[in-house]
Amino acid sequence: MRAYQRARPAAASSAISLCADIFPVSAAGVEALRRQQQPPLGRRQGPGGPLPSEIQRVQQLSVADLKSLVQSKGWHKAAGGDIGLAGAGRTREAILSDIVRKLVLEEQVKSSPATPSASSFRSSRWGRPAWGSESSTSSPSSGAAQMLQWLTDSTDLPCSKSTRWGSWTIPLRPVFRYKPIEISGEPCISVVASHEAIPPPDLHLGALPACAKDAERNVELIKGLQVMMLAGTGRPPSGGSIVGLKGRLGAAGLREWLMGVCTSEDTKRLISQASDDEVLWEVQPNRGGGSLTFLGSRLQPKLSASNTEQLSRLSVSQDPSWLMRACVLPPGERQSLVDGELGRLQRVSTEILGTLFPSGWERASSSQAESLGRSFSVFPQPSAVVGGGVRVKSVGKALWGAMTRTGLYQYEPTMGRQLAAFGVVLSRNPSPAEMRQAERTFSELSDILGELGLEVSAPGVASAGSVVEALDLAKKVGAQVVVFFATADAQGLYHTAKRECMLRKAPKLHHLASQWIDLQREKHDFYALASIGLGICGKLGHTPYVLDSDAGQKNQLLVGMDVCHYPDPKAAGQMMHVVAGHLQGSDGGVESSWLYAGHIDGESIPPVVYRTLLTSEACSGRQVTIHRDGRFTDIEKKFLAEHAKEVGVEGGGFTLVEVVKHAAGSPRLYSGRDNAPPGSFLRLSSSEGLLVAGDSRCAGTRNPLLLRVVEQPGGPNVEQAAKDIYRMSLVTYSNLWTKPRLPATTRAADAAAYFHASTGTHAMLRSGESSEALRFLGRQQYWL
DNA sequence: GTTATCACCTCACATCGGGT
DNA sequence: ACCCGATGTGAGGTGATAAC
């Protein structure tokens, strides 16, 4: 009791403390560095010599060499420069630091936005959609970010960890990327850390028994293996893939032939030294050209995702995902890595770091003063509402328990609680064991649906040799949902089954609902079955739960839009576009979903699509927010501004929100040393922000979404937009136990577009000669 | 059953520089 | 002004895993 009383105020008062891998820089410091710019060099240095290599060279020089370099460049005090060569504190380290600073500044001048020759900013992925401020073409701290990037890239970073693979220890080297970013106009630097695997020198084909001793036996397994070719002196390794086995070096004439072919002296020496049983491989270079012959010991297997599986088949390691897992960075580790690198930079170039961060570098965090600290917030998690208006947590056992006690929020009125289900094993000749397994799963699933308040009527599980046969049986019994049990010989029928169900009507439904269950997978436990059951409810058009209303957002329409392009099955070589639109209320309840298939000029969603979806009936007197997967084009913005007036949208305009899934390396958000909780938000400007959504418990650091609100009449409100998106991320009928990262709006649009493309139904919806089609697809969530 | 995490691969596309 | 290859970048797909 005492402990409870003590603990509670503490928990309530200490609102979660958030921070991000974003570091405010001193505006004065950035400006000072800019002013120090020297006049551009008379001659332009070759583009092939990026600064890092220059710094790398300089770092190896002796004190004497460093001093003479300073003198030759005219940087020493005697020549009017600002680098002292002697006196107190003028250690090698100090002089080196000054030289590095000079080199960095020189390079910055060459590619600064003011210099016409600069191209790196325009082509940079950060050049155009500048973070934090869309209006400015280049944020004030972009030069600072580049400077830090050069400093980091100029050193071979020590490997921070390693992973075991077979008998090798593979070092993992940290990689850092710096970007300019603004928080409420304050210049900052964001840092994103990742890892890359460095193949050790002794890891080569000659050292893999399967590719050396047993090479002849494994040729077929080894063909296609991606390798790096260690060419002669100076040349960087280039990539290629194994196309065949040439033979052993000792075979008649091979050594002499290879000696004659090779030009590099180094290579010739290696060949003459190699033993007779060294294997020679034919390699097809990725660059093109004819295949080349290499010594096994001069070929390193690529440590890449696609290659690890093939390597694992060579029985070096049984686990092909070792690399991926080793590279995952838990939040605490990621923070330490970033801290360590900034600390290292401070030692390498005290002056630059000191100018950018006069009072030491510190993460932007919610505990900071003024606008910086207030830019962080955590949205409260809304409750879910189930049958009888009961409110519960929107995820997991609580939600399940509430739905089983008081029923779903709404059973589709036309259907009520009755459900005709049909189970069928897809196999010409199912084994008794397979039938038993299917029957048991089907009955468990029926029980689950019963718990959700549905009165399931179902004949026993049948079997059918084809999808059509199965659906004819389903039709006879008036089934509204078909559960397919797939045996080994039905694996390829998934898309056919989905397509046929989509195209068939069912009693009281737009289309037949379907569920695919793979009998080859291990038995479905309660968690899986509960998710399947919930999914079936969504596919039937029921509304299992909605969200508790958000004060102030009473009458809102949320729209998700997604555009995909796919090859047109009717016109070879042409692309067709699939636009999916998804309308729901602010409580998450589905209102309707639409699909457009046809050709599109550019990336713009055709006006006819918006005109059909966003009618006056749907929009009049409501606030309407459109979530777009990707960017709105200018044409769309212009059209929507006009259209909003026509349909009488509240507030005079649509709220347009761009949801960017993979904003190249979004800086991560934390709560202390842990992942930031879902609902965490960092406001970057009036129109941009980073949002953490989803509650997956992966080991890694969560990747926030980048949200951008397009300018609008009432002024953009990125906070409200982020709140809506967080709320919508809590609405899923496909899984009871975890929440996705994306809002239901764009997720539904995305999934629907993918569904049609993968089943081929996007082309079939076009009737007759028409090259395009716009269809209303009802409220059933067939894409689940 | 679904979900996100990591790096890399491939493909498509834009842009740049060096020519003519 | 135009072409062409080189270069760089983005999007989307890949696979194992653990959690509920």
Primary descriptors:
Rossmann fold; RNaseH-like_sf; alpha+beta; disordered N terminus; 26 helices; 5-stranded antiparallel sheet; 10-stranded mixed sheet; 4 domains; 784 residues; DNA-binding; Piwi domain-containing protein; globular; SH3 type barrels
Please specify the SSE layout and strand pairing.
Blueprint: H1 2-13, E1 18-20, E2 22-24, H2 27-35, H3 51-59, H4 63-73, H5 92-111, H6 120-123, H7 142-153, E3 161-165, E4 168-183, E5 186-197, H8 215-222, E6 226-229, E7 238-248, H9 254-261, H10 265-273, E8 279-285, E9 292-295, E10 299-301, H11 305-313, H12 322-327, H13 331-348, H14 350-356, H15 370-374, E11 376-378, E12 384-385, E13 391-392, H16 396-406, E14 418-426, H17 432-451, E15 455-457, E16 462-464, H18 467-476, E17 481-486, H19 494-503, E18 513-518, H20 526-540, E19 546-547, E20 556-567, E21 575-585, E22 590-598, H21 607-613, H22 616-619, E23 623-629, H23 634-647, E24 655-660, E25 669-671, E26 674-675, E27 680-683, E28 688-691, E29 705-709, H24 718-729, H25 744-759, H26 761-764, E30 773-776
Parallel strand pairs: 14-15, 14-16, 14-17, 17-18, 20-23, 23-24
Antiparallel strand pairs: 1-25, 2-5, 3-4, 4-5, 6-7, 6-10, 7-8, 8-9, 11-27, 12-13, 12-19, 20-21, 21-22, 22-30, 24-29, 25-26, 27-28, 28-29
Helix pairs in contact: 2-14, 3-5, 4-5, 5-7, 13-14, 17-20
The chain binds a DNA duplex (20 and 20 nucleotides) through strand 5, helix 11, helix 12 and helix 20.
Domain Piwi: 481-761
GO molecular function: nucleic acid binding
Biased composition (Low complexity): 133-142
